[in-house]
## 1
Amino acid sequence: MHPTLQTLFNQIEDRREAILNSFRSLSEEQLNQRPRDGQWSAAEVLNHLVTAERLSVAYIQKKVQGLSELPRTGWWDDFKMGLLIISQRMPGLKFKAPRRVVENTTRMTSLAEIEVAWKAVREDLKMLLESLPEQESDRKIYRHPAVGYLNIRHALIFFREHLIHHAPQLRALLKS
């Protein structure tokens, strides 16, 4: 795996493990308790994160088939990625989950189920990253719903930023 991709993969893996570890002391009931009507429980947030990554990895796996035909990213895509990072880190800024993610979210209620599913997604992602030729890593292989087509490095950065974006919500759920 390209060293930059390995670093980014390690970052998202460390965050995944930290998130899961922070919820180990909760019962299944606590994990599924909504703080207020209309707000997600911790299990729902975790399901959302797993589903978003699962669908993204599946999309990337399809795009790999025609990798050499895909256009390359450039400075404009790096700029859009910078804006996406800023948007993910702005406190209180909320985004509606993409319809495809909402419609395909699996309802797992136990932390053990969530952990198994998330680990499987990450194993698929790791295999994909290990098979990706380094010289093709700037191909527009990932489609983000807000900023469009990005490369695999951008995708991993978004995965990290998505976890960071949901961190305050998850911390608040731990306190409630």
## 2
Amino acid sequence: MNNANMRFKDFVWPINPAEISFSTKNTVKELNLLYGGCILQNLGRQPKIISGKGTFTGENAFFWFSELEKLFAQNTSGILLISGIAPCNATFTKLKMLGQPAKDTVQYEFVFVEDIGEIESNSTQSCYVVLSCGQNLWHISNLHCVAIETLMKLNPFIPSPWEVKQGDVVRIK
């Protein structure tokens, strides 16, 4: 299995975190009926919470952690890509250095929360794909029946249909 490096916005982890956890839940409310009994009302899904722990090692360990701090300080949502979890729009809500940093080693933990405010309330929820080796926007256009012009409008950061690479996240809807 090819585990692509974790990505948030333009930051690509040089080493994937050792631990990643993912949780979400539906909110339900129990409603009592007038003459006894009850029913459950589904009030919708809560945002995904993605957390984990990792270690940066090597002579650039402190550089990578400081880059992560800069990303955290932006305090804006972006696309979070983790192998095995569907890409989502998320906000970086916690970054913590663990213990005393040793020479060439920085341990940290993080939390991302899905930004469900970015999801439209109707059925036209945004949809993303992760490019495989050798794919470009023309491939995605054909696979998902989306006009190339639409893909370019949905992904303004992509300069041309050919200037993409494996692991890039592309919005298709």
## 3
Amino acid sequence: MALNLAIDLPKKVKLQLSQQLEDLQKVYPAYSWVDKDQYHIPIHFFAPHHKKEAIIQKTKDALYDQESFYLYASHLDLFMTNQIMIYVHFRREKVLEAIAEKIQDAFLLERKKFIPHITVSRSSTSSKQQYFLLQKKLERTNIDFEFKVSELILFDSVQTIKKNSFHKIETIPLQSI
């Protein structure tokens, strides 16, 4: 079992994002598209463990005074590793960056730059020409939504050969602003 601290999107926003991606999904049906019910913004992935309750408590303690905030989607982009990962990029949000830093500090982790994103698709790498064409299509895809974040979720992350699935195990409320 691996835990993932994340922001779960409201159902309305998941549907809105799914609709904004429909044309792109039709053009690239061979890509592995994430099911809209699995859309989330990962904050921290905890390696497989056996101390679930300790992680839950330490996370709650680190975030006890965090305020709610708004997130604004800005555009689609790519991460390139051994595969192509299409993701939704967000405008910077200081409260969210502070949350990521508090978690890194609470668990004595090396500080890394936090990039809020939603993975929407994965695919094997392609030729440079196909890659540049995909980039142009992503630039032309309008991604426009916003939502209030009033809670964080600890998910149990289950990996299978075909996909990952996430099951809520704990909700961490944020203070109202």
## 4
Amino acid sequence: MTHRSHHSRIDDTTTGIDAGRRRLLLGGTGALLSLGLAGCFSEPSIALEGVTVQDLDGNPVALDSIKGKPTVITFWATTCPGCVKEIPHIQELHDKYADRGVNVVGLAMSYDPLDQINAMVEQKDMTYTIWQDKSGRGAEVFGPVRVTPTFFILDREARVAYQKIGLIDMDRVEGIIQGLIESA
């Protein structure tokens, strides 16, 4: 006669989940996790072709000009307190990584007037690339982006390696940038 110890097995009557349902839940969770992780490594590129923004003089700039290099891009506004707080961190990324082949771009939202953007750039001594998304198409192809600050790191093919709404974690951001530089 086989004797099973009551303490060596899970008593499904106390958890309220029978063994079949538990297997189904665990199997389904595993499948979803696998699909989610697979998606992390096969993200399509952001469709930047044909999207035009403007530089600080109002001249058109093709947004796909950032392709070919890892790119840090933050959507921001001069009236956004979190965006203004983020400026020194974005400047630090520019100072540290621009010479190592990383684009660092601040893309001002469509509702931000160009003269106000220029004043902020001068006031905060922002030396990284600043463009205005005058038409709003840049924000559309990235999501759409509706909240600022919204921060992205793109690989050389314009695939999203990292995205964050709100203030960024500099250690995490720098780790991702380093990985993209080293994978060149």
